[in-house]
């Protein structure tokens, strides 16, 4: 999954705000929406999307993401909850090719819905938002702001994701105490969880990686830099991260980890443009695999929420590509890891490596 990591970090470096601000997004959700767009595209439009996704063809995108759309219900007292929806919303009169509908049907949680885009743009916006809110358990109640659907909008490719998993071994809430955290704006006390147990641990290339196993085959990976995150994060490459993750070995770790809750929203047109996706946003876009009507992407919007506490983690994300007509034994001493400064946090599917969430935490207060 080095290709998926490469896409995740490449877009993260262009998408994340200033280094002193916390931020989260879902590479899985964005890659899913772009994967649907790739399946709808042809020519240069398709080639640019595939280059950004680091994939040879649309089927490779779906094949990389689909295994992470299911989690095992075994091995945990509380079953994990994972919901994935991939939806084509289309104007009533837009002719959609049967071949695209067959392709869409192979994606997890696929659906096709019609809506009165041109006759009732805001009503359509509310329909899409309600559908996303249902999938995300109301963590993302309004993906599309007023005006996001106008009379020229005729379709939207939407991914929504919800994930709630418990830790394999919960943190003891009684041991959570106020501990110092060195945020960019100064030191402050934040609720910090602590545990001492065997965890996957690696230290290499100026980073420490600590894996927290969760239910159903999910895991969280804490990435703590040796130097300031603002300096280390831009230099982190997919190859470096892949190598660091591969070096993890079970070791006894004394971990101090703050509880945190990060939310963010972003418009992806400019960041994707930096990855070479340009034609899709122009009148020269080719979405002939979806419809005979001339379409372009007018905007790609994204929202994400990630919450981590003693019991586990809960996250939600949604991405929408809006489309309009172009015309018209004695245990060793534990390794102490005190997370008291900004860090990165991955939530991923352990077997496939697909990244559900990638968060930067600069101030958990």
Automatic annotation (TrEMBL):
Domain Serpin: 9-364
Family note: Belongs to the serpin family.
Protein name: Serpin family protein
Taxonomic source organism: Saccharopolyspora gregorii
């Amino acid at each position: 999954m080095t290709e998926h990591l490469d896409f995740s970090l490449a877009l993260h470096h262009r998408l994340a705000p200033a280094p002193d601000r916390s931020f989260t997004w879902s590479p899985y959700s964005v890659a899913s929406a772009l994967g649907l767009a790739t399946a709808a595209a042809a020519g240069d439009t398709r080639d640019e999307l595939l280059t950004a996704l680091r994939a040879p063809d649309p089927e490779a995108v779906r094949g990389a993401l689909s295994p992470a759309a299911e989690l095992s219900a075994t091995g945990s007292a509380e079953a994990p909850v994972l919901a994935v929806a991939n939806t084509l919303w289309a104007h009533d009169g837009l002719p959609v090719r049967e071949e695209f509908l067959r392709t869409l049907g192979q994606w997890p949680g696929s659906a096709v819905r019609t809506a009165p885009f041109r006759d009732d743009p805001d009503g359509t916006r509310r329909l899409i938002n309600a559908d996303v809110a249902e999938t995300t358990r109301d963590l993302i109640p309004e993906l599309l702001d007023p005006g996001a659907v106008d009379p020229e909008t005729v379709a939207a490719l939407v991914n929504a994701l919800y994930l709630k998993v418990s830790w394999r071994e919960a943190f003891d809430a009684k041991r959570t105490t106020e501990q110092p955290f060195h945020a960019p704006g100064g030191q402050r006390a934040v609720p910090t969880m602590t545990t001492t147990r065997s965890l996957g641990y690696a230290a290499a290339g100026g980073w420490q990686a600590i894996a927290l196993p969760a239910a159903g085959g999910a895991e969280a990976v804490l990435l703590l830099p040796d130097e300031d995150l603002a300096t280390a994060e831009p230099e982190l490459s997919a190859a470096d991260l892949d190598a660091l993750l591969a070096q993890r070995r079970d070791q006894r770790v004394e971990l101090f980890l703050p509880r945190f809750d990060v939310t963010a929203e972003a418009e992806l047109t400019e960041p994707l443009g930096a990855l070479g996706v340009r034609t899709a946003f122009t009148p020269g876009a080719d979405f002939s695999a979806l419809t005979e009507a001339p379409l372009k992407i007018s905007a790609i919007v994204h929202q994400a929420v990630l919450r981590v506490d003693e019991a586990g983690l809960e996250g939600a994300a949604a991405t929408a590509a809006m489309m309009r007509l172009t015309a018209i034994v004695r245990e060793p001493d534990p390794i102490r890891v005190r997370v008291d400064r900004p860090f990165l946090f991955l939530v991923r599917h352990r077997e496939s490596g697909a990244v559900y969430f990638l968060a930067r935490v600069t101030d958990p207060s």
